[in-house]
Amino acid sequence: MGIDMDDKIRLAVVGCGNMGASIIRALSKKERYSIIAVDSDEKKLKMLSGEIENLETHLSAKEIENADIVLIAVKPQALDELYPILSELESEIFISIVAGIPMDSLSKNLGRIHKVARFMPNLAAECKKAVTAVCHTGNFLEEELSVVMDIASSIGSVYLIDEKMFNAFTGISGSGIAYALETMHYIALGGVKEGIPYPMALNIVRDTFESAAQLQRHLESEPMSIVTRITSAAGTTIEGIKALEEGGFGNTLMNAVEATSKRSKEIEEKYGR
Ligand SMILES: NC(=O)c1ccc[n+]([C@@H]2O[C@H](COP(=O)([O-])OP(=O)(O)OC[C@H]3O[C@@H](n4cnc5c(N)ncnc54)[C@H](OP(=O)(O)O)[C@@H]3O)[C@@H](O)[C@H]2O)c1
After folding, report:
1. Is the model's pLDDT at 1 over the cut of 70?
2. Which is deepest, 14, 43, 45, 76, by most CB within 10 Å?
3. What is the distance between the alpha carbons of residues 184 and 21, in angstroms, rounded to a whole number?
4. CB 174 near ligand 1, within 6 Å
5. Which residues of the chain does CATH 3.40.50.720 include?
């Protein structure tokens, strides 16, 4: 059947919490989509309808009609209740952003052969700066895949990766964004200890993170070769680097990614049947 590219693409978003709502807000600015927002919580639908003109809303996925694509944005615990409803829909293309649920589990539970794509975004979807991993079942037409990538890129940058890397991706980005924020907080606290008020210290740290990211992007060099340029002999930076090493900074961050990835695998084992 495929998507009729001459018509508006009807996209149903099931679950309008943090992530679903961010995706709806981003796509509502694009002419090519007609969005159906579905959430069991009426308040969330009212809030979105207040922001977006002519938004079609429903309290249950049972009400979805003629959706070209269904994007699943509920918590993993909600899936068991949702699968029988979703499997009755005519839609051929499903996108899931549910953490820890593999594509074969989605396909199996949706009951017939579908085209399934999986996204792993992070919370920066709220400001269209998410970093989103995408994988798919490989049976999409080229133009369908370009729509899937357009949906993912509406909330930020996109990496098409093998599903095997999804748990690790959660460690470095989906959850990893939290570690970046924690690091910002503790550097700012260091500033407080040395006499800079917290709000000012935090702004300075935020801009420093942005300048580090921009510099790395500009030079396309690995971080340590840039660090070497900053670290002069018997200077200030080497003292800080030594303190980081003594505190096990590098090892701690790698452990955080490993722990997240392990938890992501556990969720996969619990809910991804
Ligand atoms: N937040 C992140 O940073 C992040 C990053 C990557 C991936 N994810 C994934 O994205 C998914 C959504 O996360 P979130 O933070 O947006 O969750 P959320 O804020 O809890 O949103 C989920 C929404 O779905 C609604 N819902 C539950 N069951 C439903 C059903 N049967 N039909 C319609 N709506 C239903 C919930 O309503 P109630 O509140 O009334 O239950 C809630 O409004 C999760 O699977 C998560 O793993 C999240």
Report:
1. no
2. 14
3. 27
4. yes
5. 9-169
> Does the pLDDT value for residue 5 go beyond 80?
no
Cβ–ligand 1 distance for 23 under 6 Å, the answer: no
What tokens does 228 get? Answer: 């070497």
CATH hierarchy code of domain 174-268 = 1.10.3730.10
Could you identify the atom of ligand 1 that is nearest to the CA of residue 123? 3
The mean pLDDT of 117-132, rounded to a whole number, is: 96
- Does ligand 1 lie within 6 Å of residue 156's CB atom? no
Q: From start to end of the chain, where are the E strands?
A: 9-14, 33-38, 56-58, 69-72, 93-96, 115-120, 130-136, 156-160
Looking at domain 9-169, which of 2.60.410.10, 3.30.230.10, 3.40.50.720, 3.30.70.100 is its CATH number?
3.40.50.720
CB 81 less than 6 A from any atom of ligand 1: yes
- Site to substitute for ligand 1 among 39, 71, 98, most atoms within 8 A of C-beta: 39
pLDDT tens-digit series, residues 29-41: 999 999 999 999 9
